[in-house]
């Protein structure tokens, strides 16, 4: 089944007669679960109206680069950051040339330049224009920069000729786009993810817990499925739907989470512990609701089991990734935890007042991560949690395949991922 659930797609529409198909394409992308924002070039408006694409996408169409009102809303940089992928369909010979030249005189060119996400083109032009040497040079140039080509296909063209240059059929474009996210980098692997908070009961109606929303862990579970893994999600109480093709086991307390993880460990290759496990629990759990009394009340607390450390000690061959949420001294604490818990990788993120720049983290849809492993580290700058999860999974998959259980102390190789990404800032 083609799925683009939770994917944010910028659809660029340029001046080609095939632009009339962009309305249908927008509909199909949305049917597959994507959130679509349309960017039109001036040329595209000769073939289809912005109103049509606004109606089918459910959002105003982005048209102008130098429009102060539009830039104040979602400007070209925000659009590029927002996207998980950019698809230009149809891509005219003219826009291809502009892209090859790195031009940003139209909004779509600027968004393509500013994006650090997969960019795919669905060329649509007359067969002779497609075969022209200038077009061929431009195709070679953009391909060498990692830009993807979906088509063009052979067939009858609007000009009456038959040949190569027809825009690929809409349903096929949706499948091609979905395939970008289905990387296959974890095919045949089993991944167990812990997520959400735990609740430590005080009495039948009260508990100790924290602000964890579970969003990061759920996004990681979904990204691992996209990468081809079989995924088990052990989740504390959250109000999120279970991602497609993920098996979820619901728990409440740290003790239940430990038992559920232990029970699910057979055959697991990679453990990713994102759960915000309560560090302490009441020593005594009252059987009846505690009555309010005058004066202060003290609760005696005891430590909960460290699930990640316990499981890693019992299953040393499982590649284990922890999370470290800190309000200060992120790097130092994260690296210390990497060693203390005996794990292969840790993803550190700021929480609390220091995290305003990264979107606040708890409950927010954005975050920024700093990955550490035995002999390397990598910053993943502010992005949606879905996008970060996919990047994290890509790094875990690559490190895991290089690492293949050379013991951690001897150090895994530092791997540079080949991506269409640019340095932050
Ligand atoms: O020690 P700290 O709680 O900061 O460690 C965070 C990491 O350890 C996270 O990956 C978290 O899921 C995991 N953890 C755990 N069990 C605990 C505490 C933390 O698995 N009791």
- Strand order, biggest sheet? 12-11-8-13-16-17-18-19
Relative helix content: 25-40%
Strand-residue proportion: 15-25%
Instruction: Please give the CATH class of the largest domain.
Output: Alpha Beta
- CATH topology annotation of the largest domain: Rossmann fold
- Name the ligand types: cytidine-5'-monophosphate
Low-confidence stretches at least 5 residues in length (pLDDT < 50)? 405-425
Treating each run of at least 4 consecutive H or I residues as one helix, how many helices? Answer: 14
CATH superfamily of the largest domain: CoaB-like
* Count of domain modules: 2
Q: Could you explain how this protein is built, in words?
A:
The chain is of the alpha/beta class and 425 residues long. It has two domains: 8-179, Flavin prenyltransferase-like (Rossmann fold); 190-281 and 300-419, Rossmann fold (3-Layer(aba) Sandwich), CATH 3.40.50. It has helices at 22-31, 50-57, 68-74, 76-82, 93-100, 107-114, 127-131, 133-144, 170-181, 215-226, 254-264, 307-314, 330-340, 385-403; strands at 8-13, 35-40, 85-91, 119-123, 148-149, 153-156, 162-166, 190-195, 200-201, 207-208, 230-235, 246-250, 270-273, 280-282, 301-303, 319-326, 345-350, 366-373, 376-384. The protein has an eight-stranded mixed β-sheet, sandwiched between helices. Helix 13 links the parallel strand 16 and strand 17 (345-350). The longest helix has 19 residues, at 385-403. The relative contact order is 0.10. Bound molecules: cytidine-5'-monophosphate. Residues 194, 254, 273-275, 277, 304-308, 322-324, 337 line the site of cytidine-5'-monophosphate.
């Amino acid at each position: 089944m083609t799925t683009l659930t939770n994917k944010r797609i910028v659809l660029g529409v340029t001046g080609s007669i095939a632009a009339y198909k962009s309305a249908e394409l927008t509909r199909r992308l949305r049917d597959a679960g994507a959130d679509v924002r349309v960017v039109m070039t001036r040329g595209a408006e000769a073939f289809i109206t912005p109103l049509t694409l606004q109606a089918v996408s459910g959002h105003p169409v982005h048209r102008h680069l130098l429009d102060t009102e539009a830039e104040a809303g979602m400007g070209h940089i925000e659009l590029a950051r927002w996207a998980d992928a950019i698809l230009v369909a149809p891509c005219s010979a003219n826009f291809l040339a502009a892209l090859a030249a790195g031009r940003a005189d139209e909004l779509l060119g600027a968004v393509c330049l500013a994006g650090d996400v997969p960019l795919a083109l669905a060329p649509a032009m007359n067969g002779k224009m497609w075969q022209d040497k200038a077009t061929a040079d431009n195709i070679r140039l953009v391909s060498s920069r990692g830009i993807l080509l979906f088509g063009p296909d052979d067939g009858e063209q609007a000009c009456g000729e038959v040949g190569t240059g027809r825009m690929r059929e809409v349903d096929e474009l949706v499948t091609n786009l979905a395939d970008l996210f289905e990387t296959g980098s974890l095919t045949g692997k089993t991944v167990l993810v812990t997520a959400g908070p735990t609740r430590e009961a005080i009495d039948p109606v009260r508990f100790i817990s924290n602000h964890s929303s579970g969003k990061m862990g759920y996004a990681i579970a979904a990204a691992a499925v996209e990468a081809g893994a079989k995924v088990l999600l052990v989740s504390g109480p959250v109000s999120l739907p279970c991602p497609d093709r993920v098996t979820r086991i619901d728990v409440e307390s740290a003790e239940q989470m430990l038992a559920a993880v232990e029970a699910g460990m057979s055959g697991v290759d990679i453990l990713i512990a994102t759960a915000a496990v309560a560090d302490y629990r009441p020593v005594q759990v009252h059987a009846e609701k505690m009555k309010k009394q005058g004066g202060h009340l003290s609760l005696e607390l005891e430590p909960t089991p460290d699930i990640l450390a316990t499981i890693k000690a019992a299953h040393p061959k499982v590649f284990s990734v922890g999370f470290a949420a800190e309000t200060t001294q992120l790097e130092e604490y994260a690296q210390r935890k990497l060693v203390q818990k005996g794990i292969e990788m840790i993803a550190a993120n700021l929480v609390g007042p220091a995290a305003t720049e990264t979107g606040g983290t708890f409950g927010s849809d954005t975050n920024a991560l700093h990955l550490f492993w035995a002999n390397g580290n990598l910053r993943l700058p502010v992005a949606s949690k879905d996008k970060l999860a996919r990047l994290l999974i890509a790094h875990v998959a690559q490190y895991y395949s290089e690492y293949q259980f050379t013991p951690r102390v001897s150090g895994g190789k530092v791997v540079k991922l080949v991506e269409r990404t640019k340095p932050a800032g």
